[in-house]
Amino acid sequence: YMFLSSKTLSIIALILSLINFLFLFSTRKIMYDTVNRELQEQSLIYSVETEALNTISSIKISGLEDEIYENWSKYLKNVLTKYKKRSIVHILYNSATN
């Protein structure tokens, strides 16, 4: 119906739809990668936290609290960096598609 009413408007709508589809298709891999990297970093920090909790008495006895905290802090910074990157990608994606 739109094509019969206005060919110019129909072509513009078709071009915009095609651009939107290409954008969604091209950003799919980026979205997947950012989410995957964040999940990997979260997995690493969870394993460090679990190990620290399971060996808390040994850590206290040997006086390694500061070293364990520094190690955990490095993992936390990595997680937050990946979270920030994923958030930026998602914000850009949502802004472009809405």
Shape: rod-shaped
What is the string of SSEs from the N terminus onward?
A: HHHH
N-end to C-end Cα span: 25 Å
Largest sheet: none
Average the pLDDT over all residues and give the rounded result: 90
Task: Count up the domains.
Answer: 1
Per DSSP E runs of 2 or more residues, the count of β-strands stands at 0
User: Count the helices. How many?
Assistant: 4
What proportion of the residues is helical, as a percent range? over 70%
User: Which class best fits the helix and strand makeup?
Assistant: mainly alpha
The radius of gyration is: 24 Å
Residue ranges: pLDDT <50 for 5 or more in a row? none
Strand content: under 5%
Describe the overall structure:
It is a single chain. It contains 4 helices and no strands. The chain is an all-alpha fold and 98 residues long. It has one domain. It is rod-shaped and about 80 Å long. The protein starts with a helix and ends with a helix.
